[in-house]
Amino acid sequence: MLFLAPLIAIGYIDWQHRRIPNSYLLVLLGLGTYSMLIIEGSSLTTVLINIVIALALTLPGYIRGLLGGGDVKLMLAITPLYAPLQLLLVFSIGIGSLLLLMAFLHIAQRMSLTKAYCSNMAVQQSPFQRGLPLGTAIALGAVILHFQSSF
Question: Are the C-beta atoms of 59 and 110 separated by less than 8 Å?
Fold first, then answer.
């Protein structure tokens, strides 16, 4: 639960600036390691499987220039927090919800009513032109998975 605060902050910063500060990643990694060792007692094998999953999901995008180094480091920082299936769910739920949000914003910016009543929104750059903020997607996925599993 403690890890949600830095994840939400990372998601917001990544959405606004398309950068993920290393200091936030270190806090997240520390909380994840603490959670793994003290609270949950996860095995090293689980973390190693998660590292392979995280690299398999992010390295191709990093090599092609679609993702930044902060996105790869964020996926690696959250590996101690989840079981392998949960890590895949965080990634897939996050990407899906982020794409829906970005598509909604893109459509809203094209509407004439939005341009008339929200002129500052209509002038902004389309969310697709600035790239995909994977940090925001991961934060969304983690929050959705957390609250979905709470019910």
Answer: no
94 within 8 A of 141, measured Cβ to Cβ: yes
Chain segment 6-24, per-residue pLDDT in tens? 999 999 999 888 899 999 9
Q: Are 132 and 72 in contact (CB under 8 A)?
A: no
- Residue 135: phi, psi to the nearest 5? -60, -40
What amino acid occupies position 61?
A: G
In single-letter form, the type of residue at position 38 comes to I
In terms of Cα–Cα distance, which of 137, 138, 139 is closest to 127? 137
Question: Is pTM beyond 0.85 here?
Answer: no
CA dist., res. 113 & res. 77, Å (int): 42
Would you say 7 and 143 are in contact if contact means Cβ atoms under 8 Å apart? yes
In order of 30, 54, 58, 59, 121, the CA distances from 90 in angstroms are: 19, 11, 13, 17, 29
